[in-house]
Amino acid sequence: MKQPNTVFECLPQLRLFANVMCPDTTAADKAVGECLARAQKRLFHTPDPDRIFLMLLTDLAAAIRQGDQARVSDDGPFKQRTMQILRQLPPHHRDVLIVVTLFNFRYWEAADVCGCPVGTIKSRLSRARAAFTAASEISSHGKVVYHHSLPSHAGVA
User: What does the DSSP assignment read for 78-117?
Assistant: First the structure.
């Protein structure tokens, strides 16, 4: 998958990431706007156009973390089963899962976006995949059930 190399080409992926990470579309749009405002000055100094998406996604992830907009929503506006499952995952699992599996980033690129070491990315990705698979079960009431499979001493990794 070829990564976008202009701001205009990056917008759909940035909005997708923000919509998954934020509790509603208003917060997602605000985070994307903050990301673009922060990046405006740096874009003119980016020597490699192939790194624009990585830079913007890193800024967006930071804006979401700093704005405390990445939280689990009880019942988001998305009714699709996949989105419900994604929204039930902890934010630090959601961002890694989206960045690595959907955007096809390498581990070191995902580490830049998520602001953590590469080893943590690998650990979070493994746990996010396991949690996503476990959450795919449907309860008898038709609601998505998220099974917390990690022991309490596992921490945030």
Answer: --SHHHHHHHHS-HHHHHHHIIIIIS---HHHHHHHHTS-
Q: Is the pLDDT of residue 17 over 80?
A: yes
| Cα 125–Cα 122–Cα 63 angle in degrees, nearest 5 | 65
Structural domain range at position 113: 7-146
Both tokens assigned to 20: 């998954």
Which residues lie below 8 Å from residue 54, measured CB to CB, with a gap of 6+?
A: 3, 105, 109, 112, 113
Average pLDDT over residues 15-29: 86
Angstrom distance (rounded) from CA 133 to CA 119: 21
Structurally, how many domains does the chain consist of? 1
How many residues are recorded in the chain? 157
Residue 125 confidence (pLDDT): 93
b/e burial code for range 78-97 (CB count within 10 A of at least 16 → b)? beeeeebbbbbbbbbbbbbb
In a domain, 40, yes or no: yes
Quote the CA–CA distance of 130 and 2 in Å, as a whole number: 27
